[in-house]
Amino acid sequence: MQQDNPSGLLEYYYDAASGNVIWRHGGGPADVGRGMAGDVDPRFPGMEVWSFSGLYNAAANRLTEPDTSRRPWPQLGLWWDGDLTTELLNDGKIEKWDPARPTPSGSLPRLVSTWNHGAVKAAQGGPTLVGDLFGDWREEAVYTNASYDELIVFTTNQPTNHRLYTLAHNPAYRNAMTFKGYMQSHHVDYFLGAGMAAPPRPDITYAP
């Protein structure tokens, strides 16, 4: 994503190994303040990417939902329920975009409203921390209470048939929890989504 690029570039997808741009979307200049990547549509292989111009399958550069207004808000992603696709964390709401019945931002099916449990939002309407803290492979969202003297931790109660190493076993994921200025979603260095292959065993040993 780009912020007021004078060429009109809004968002682009590039090969991290070579720096070559694979595809780009223009139409600006505009302040594209946020973007997201996650597998929210299992009908298409791989991840979807989006900011405010519609929901695209990253590999194909193809809109997965023709109505560009029916895309989720690009805030944060997390793995929460029992399937392998990405859920969304936006303004204190844990949500799930449904490709069979797509709805625009602000009206997605909701799984959790964090304020019903005393949580208050941090900067940009987000949590204090999101990440795989307690094992399993789903993620927790950490908030504070209104007095800022308690942590309120949300963890899924939904069962899953998928068994994976904890995300924090993955060095790229562990680094991603700490190296960003703005809070952004964390990613492992393998594809985690619908139709994924078994991930490699983490090369981690306990130090004596």
Structural commentary:
It contains one helix and 13 strands. It is globular and about 50 Å long. By secondary structure, it is mostly beta strands.
What is the compact description of this entry?
With 208 residues, the protein is an all-beta fold. The protein has one helix and 13 strands.
Which tags fit this structure?
208 residues, mainly beta, four-stranded antiparallel beta sheet, 13 strands, 3% helix, globular
Multimeric organization: single chain
Q: Give the strand tally.
A: 13
Order of helices and strands: EEEEEEEEEEEEEH
Mean pLDDT rating:
89
How would you write the strand order of the largest sheet? 3-4-5-6
Shape: globular
Radius of gyration: 17 Å
> Strand share of the residues?
15-25%
Q: How many helical stretches?
A: 1
Low-confidence stretches: none
Which structural category fits the helices and strands?
mainly beta
Biggest sheet features? 4 strands, antiparallel
Ends apart, CA distance between termini: 44 Å
Helicity, in percent?
Answer: under 10%
Topology:
Layout: E1 9-14, E2 21-26, E3 36-38, E4 48-50, E5 55-57, E6 62-63, E7 76-78, E8 87-90, E9 93-95, E10 110-113, E11 129-131, E12 140-144, E13 151-154, H1 171-176
Antiparallel strand pairs: 1-2, 3-4, 4-5, 5-6, 7-8, 8-9, 9-10, 11-12, 12-13
